[in-house]
Design brief:
Blueprint (H helix, E strand, L loop, with lengths): L1 H4 L2 H26 L12 H20 L10 H16 L1
Helix pairs in contact: 2-3
């Protein structure tokens, strides 16, 4: 049971979420320091950047876990690669 919990997929997902959390905290802290004072104060800070980075990572992980075989044919990265190959073939 413990071996299943510490599976490498879960450790990888946890490491990615921790990295996103750290990056969000760093960017948010820097932004918080430069916010300014008064009515011209910027909106986003530590919480906003941390939440955005962790949610973005969670969506990326969810997309990876829910990957469907048919989606491989229509993935944006694969389509851009095919377009690039076609452009290079016409130039050659």
């Amino acid at each position: 049971m413990a071996a299943e919990i510490l599976d490498s997929n879960w450790l990888d997902a946890g490491a990615r979420l921790a990295a996103a959390l750290g990056c969000g905290l760093l960017v948010g802290t820097e932004r918080e320091r430069r916010k300014g004072q008064g009515p011209d104060r910027a909106l986003a800070g530590i919480r906003s950047f941390t939440l955005a980075s962790v949610l973005g990572c969670a969506c990326m992980l969810a997309g990876g876990f829910c990957w469907l075989p048919w989606a491989q044919r229509w993935s944006p990265a694969l389509m851009w690669r095919r377009i690039g190959e076609a452009v290079r073939a016409t130039r050659a």
